[in-house]
Amino acid sequence: MTKGSLSDVNVLLIEDDEDDYVLTLDYLESIANFNFNLVWHSQYNQALEALESNEYDLCLLDYQLGPKTGLSILKEAKARDVHTPIIMLTGQSDAVLDDEALKAGAEDFVLKSEIGSVRFIRSIRYALARKELELERLERLRVESDIRAKDRFLAHLSHELRTPLTSILGYTNLLLSRQELENVKPELSIINNNSEHLLSLLNDVLDLSKINENNLQLNVEDVCLNSFLSDLHSLFKMAAAKKGLSFNIEAKTLLPKNVRVDKTRLKQILINIIYNAIKFTSSGFVKVEIALNESSKLEFKVIDSGIGIPQEKLKRIFKPFEQVQNVTTRSDEGAGLGLAISSALIALMGGKLEVSSTLGEGSEFGFFIALDMADETTLEPLRLNDAKNDEEDSLPSDLNGHILIVEDMSEIQMLMRTLIGQTGATADIASDGVEALETLKRNPDKYDLVFMDLHMPRMDGRDTLVTLRQSGLELPVIALTAAAQKGTKEELIALGFNDMLSKPVSVPELGHCLKNYLNAQQNSEVTHIDSASDELTFLVVEDDADARNLLELLLNSQQVNVVTADSAQACRQHINGKQKFDTILMDIGLPDASGLSLAKEIKSQNREQHIVIASGFDPEPEMLAESQVDDVLLKPITLIDLQTIIESL
Ligand code: ADP
User: Fold this and answer.
1) Which of 39, 168, 456, 459 is the most exposed, fewest CB within 10 Å of its CB?
2) Do domains 8-116 and 523-648 have the same CATH topology?
3) How far, CA to CA in Å, does 488 sit from each of 221, 480, 493, 502?
């Protein structure tokens, strides 16, 4: 049915007999609730053209059309992607023709003598309803494909912009560290600040477009609220102190020890609001108040004694690109996207961002988020523990030893391996119990510790442990359990496990566990570690020459040897040669292959090859897991990123 009233129906009648046209017209006009606009064609080619225009809601097609049959029009129309439903009309009943017409895609097959009957009007109604459904389906497909195209475009754009930004930021940082360039430092800093600004703008625009397309997904995880707020405090206390402002984070109630939230996004929101508060306050204070309310919602308030916002502007500042101050007079940069993104993220978390302000006195930004509280979470007072506890919470970096991770999920394998790598210990992977038993049988003395998942295909963790203990192996084995249930730990220890870590593994717990079990191994492993600190060689696969040269320069500055390749093919040639690479650092978009598929190909030949992907966007989690890469670096890649990789090796 066309635009306008629901009952307007454009009908195409393909019929070579004028009497039948008049008969059909009379009948259609007599039907209540519909307003049929009948267009009549009697010539084969014109009829086909009219059908091909797809402008009609319904076509009534006579079976006999002079020398040709309606069936051939029907077949031709379907071949030309005509979506209009077609009802075939015929003079006499014929089961074979009926069958043939339906097979060729007709909606129905009706006798001309039935025009005027209930059967005919029912047939029309069905055909129209089917057409509506078909249109909806086509529209849905069109929208989905538009969204996919836009996503691909944004991912591509982001990658393309990040690659040159990597070079700009990287080279200016490098120049900024040169003492002989002291005299041009102010200019270099300008380039550097603007590049950083461009990067944050790029991130904001990408976020906003994801939000607009309902495409932004939250990554909810267990978060220790105390550490989260302590981090935030450490982050801002210097910036506030520099402006002579007091900065505090206060809890108004006891707070849950652990909450389930998207940590990165919650941090992004708070950073935005607190950063604004400090930016728009020249004297006095900025404080953050946090409370757990009766309906288990976490309330945040960021209060400042700054310049305030005029009443009439209050509603508008949550809109993209809105700023109260005239842009040309502003000393601090910002595109007016932060609050738009924050309020959309808060809405996604089930809350609402609100603001109240008095001009010249200050502003208060408040929001709550619905909490998916970890079961029976304990409540505790907030204890900000900036530097001191950071150390306790972070991983030790001076450990030695070999660990076997027995785990079937590649993301967790990767995470554990990376975390363990940061401590100085090394880790191998077994994907299930059977593989673990084989590995330990082959290398009975290699490992100092085993982390074992309980739920795995082929052979689960409990059975594997029992088999191991029966074979006389006394190596410490830590169970990794998905849910910390009461009683599980005792049961597991009784079975022969030494301890238990619940997933998701928390960094401090992992750190304690590693310290407990690896310290004793330190002396016996020294020789091994010494050899591991030999010179490293990286293969850098990057098609952008500037980015490639920069990576080479940065890696060389860390005493890493670098071999470069500008395509997947060149990369394959290097790997097939004699040289071995400690890491392959690979761009995600190579001219002749995607980095992820190349990584997958390399891993399928050599599982142990360490591969890091450099990407301008977050790769899709499924593709990432499938490629089995060990790490992903988001462009622009910094020296610190590279140092982290080097340390993990
Ligand atoms: P911007 O990047 O411009 O800071 P935001 O979306 O974060 O963008 O903020 C939009 C505008 O709201 C700011 O430009 C500023 O005019 C106003 N604003 C935000 N927070 C405060 C505050 N705490 N005090 C005064 N004005 C504020």
Assistant:
1) 39
2) yes
3) 22, 11, 9, 10
211 C-alpha vs ligand 1 centroid, how far in Å?
20
Q: Ligand 1 atom 22: the closest Cα is on which residue?
A: 277
Q: List, for residues 454-485, the tens digit of each pLDDT value.
A: 888 888 899 999 898 888 888 899 998 765 45
**Confidence class for position 4, pLDDT limits 50, 70, 90:** very low
Determine the straight-line distance between the first and last CA of the chain, rounded to whole angstroms: 66
Q: How far is the CA of 276 from the centre of ligand 1 (A)?
A: 6
Question: For the chain, what are the domain ranges?
Answer: 8-116, 141-212, 221-388, 392-520, 523-648
Q: Write down the CATH number for the domain with range 523-648.
A: 3.40.50.2300
Contact indicator for 20, 62 with CB cutoff of 8 Å = yes
Q: State the closest ligand 1 atom to the C-alpha of 281, by its place in the atom list counted from 1.
A: 24
- DSSP codes, 596-608: HHHHHHHHHH-TT
Architecture of domain 392-520: 3-Layer(aba) Sandwich (3.40)
Ligand 1 centre and the CA of 278: distance in Å? Answer: 10
Please write the tens of the pLDDT for every residue from 387-443: 444 445 567 777 888 999 999 887 778 778 877 887 888 889 999 999 999 999 888
- At 165, which helix (H) or strand (E)? helix 118-176
Q: Does domain 8-116 have CATH number 3.40.50.2300?
A: yes
Is the pTM above the cut of 0.70?
no
Question: What residues pair up with 226 in beta bridges, in sequence order?
Answer: none
**Amino acid 2: pLDDT:** 45
317 Cβ below 6 A of ligand 1? yes
How many CB atoms neighbour CB 306 within 10 A?
A: 23
